[in-house]
Design brief:
268 residues; alpha/beta; 7-stranded mixed β-sheet; 22% strand; globular
Length: 268
């Protein structure tokens, strides 16, 4: 499988919509990840597939020395702007998690929040993240699970993509502890997995649907590349999924399941 066409499409998809709004909805898991990785002064941290900087900025607030990288130039620019606006020192680099432009054993922590899970070659991404980790360093990830709301929603949308690549593993496989342990076998000395929930609240199902329709890049793209009939069908299925997961009474309350992963690199 040639990953380059997939990556070029990904750059376009995640440049659409308003990722700033999407990032706000996933700040709590990013904070969980920063806590789990024990970001603090004296720690060199690389955040890969960083989006606009949730983990990077929270880690910098804790005193860590932070480098943030993302495949998508738009994300790197958004991250630089956000770092400047929030007054934190983060070095931003345009970089592919499958070919990180950093020396071996350069970081104490490598992290990724809902980012590296989308790399088309997960074994290559895992190998690269561990390559740049120092001995006894920590890899930390938060990944949507296959059965959770967001995992189900992304799978539903991908079924409507006319350019879907069946030879690319599902990103949500990174949310399965069994798969995670298999992928990190031979790289990590220990792997810890914990299932958690990210809560979203909206005034109504229609408000939640509108939020994703206007802000989530892949959903914005579908409006432009599939028929109006198919797009309406996709939206209706998405709305039904919201109803299935809604636990609210006077408002819509949806918990999205994710997997918190921390894995330690063995000593030299």
């Amino acid at each position: 499988m040639d990953p380059e066409p997939f990556k070029q499409v990904a750059k376009v998809l995640w440049s659409l919509g308003d990722y700033t709004e999407i990032a706000r909805a996933s700040e709590a898991p990013a904070r969980e990840l920063v806590d789990a990785c024990k970001a603090r002064p004296g720690i060199d941290l690389l955040d890969v597939a960083a989006g606009n900087g949730n983990v990077a900025i929270f880690a910098a607030w804790r005193g860590a020395t932070v480098v943030a990288s993302d495949l998508t130039p738009t994300m790197v620019e958004l991250g630089r702007q956000r770092s400047t606006a929030e007054g934190v020192d983060v070095e931003w680099r345009e970089a592919d998690v499958e070919a990180l432009p950093f020396d071996d054993e350069n970081f104490d922590v490598v992290s990724s929040a809902f980012g590296a899970m989308f790399a088309p070659r997960p074994e290559v991404a895992a190998s690269e993240m561990f390559r740049v980790l120092r001995p006894r360093g920590t890899l930390g990830m938060v990944n949507w699970t296959p059965a959770g709301f967001f995992g189900r929603a992304l799978a539903w949308m991908s079924g409507y993509s006319p350019a879907g690549q069946t030879d690319v593993p599902s990103p949500m496989a990174w949310g399965d502890p069994v798969v995670v342990r298999e992928r990190l076998s031979g790289l990590a000395g220990s792997v810890r997995c914990e299932t958690k929930m990210a809560r979203s609240t909206f005034a109504s199902e229609e408000d939640m649907l509108t939020f994703f329709r206007e802000n989530l890049g892949p959903m914005v793209a579908l409006k432009n590349i599939i028929s109006e009939e198919k797009y309406s069908e996709m939206l209706e299925g998405f709305k039904q999924l919201i109803a299935e997961f809604d636990q609210g009474r006077d408002e819509v309350l949806v918990d999205s399941e994710y997997l918190l992963v921390t894995a330690d690199k063995p000593p030299a």
